[in-house]
Design brief:
single chain; about 200 residues; mainly alpha
């Protein structure tokens, strides 16, 4: 292994350790109470080392959100195929979200306040524009769902469905954080049952 390759591997490992430490600090303290000093202490690194990789606390926060959002988008895109019916897409997507958020409570604690709009970032960065993940992935998913609504002749608009899904996602997230997994699953099941009835009536 060359010196360059070794250095790159070491930097990659250090970056990963910073993000791992930051995730713990943000989950424990929340955005407003967390400090770069706390992240440095958790990572057992000098504060200057943190600033070598990130310019601010916001950049660290967004790096974590982007990392996880990318994983989520990739999985949702895998689940949504051209030929699959909309109900199947929604069912699989929500089952994935339930499992993912249940296994990643630290990320959920970071993600949920952003979805609710309760965080005002110091740098003025826009969560919806920057942290949701790959723009092209999101656009693909949106266009696929719009096409399915038209193809299946469903009596609602894509925009209205997405507003409702965002509200449901927030509610489910809150229930998971409160430890009420069964209530979160029941809410998803109720929504899916309603959607199934609507789609069957159209047929």
């Amino acid at each position: 292994m060359s010196v360059k390759e070794r250095r790159e591997r070491e930097e990659k490992a250090r970056l990963a350790s910073i993000l791992e430490a930051a995730e713990k600090v943000f989950a424990r303290s929340g955005y407003y109470q967390a400090r770069v000093d706390d992240i440095a202490e958790e990572a057992e690194l000098a504060k200057g080392t943190i600033y070598y990789y990130f310019k601010s606390k916001d950049e660290i926060y967004f790096a974590l959100l982007k990392r996880e959002a990318q994983h989520i988008h990739e999985e949702i895109r895998r689940l949504i195929t051209e030929d699959s019916p909309l109900f199947q897409d929604l069912e699989q997507a929500f089952n994935f979200y339930l499992g993912y958020f249940e296994k990643n409570p630290a990320y959920l604690k970071m993600f949920l306040p952003c979805m609710c709009g309760t965080i005002r970032f110091e740098s003025g960065l826009d969560f919806q524009r920057i942290a949701i993940g790959n723009v092209h992935e999101g656009a693909f998913i949106g266009e696929a769902l719009k096409m399915k609504i038209r193809r299946e002749g469903l009596p609602f608009a894509y925009e209205d469905m997405m507003k409702f899904l965002k509200t449901l996602q927030i509610g489910v997230g809150v229930k998971l954080l409160e430890g009420h997994k069964d209530e979160a699953k029941a809410a998803v099941r109720f929504f899916l049952d309603l959607m199934k009835r609507v789609m069957e009536e159209v047929k």
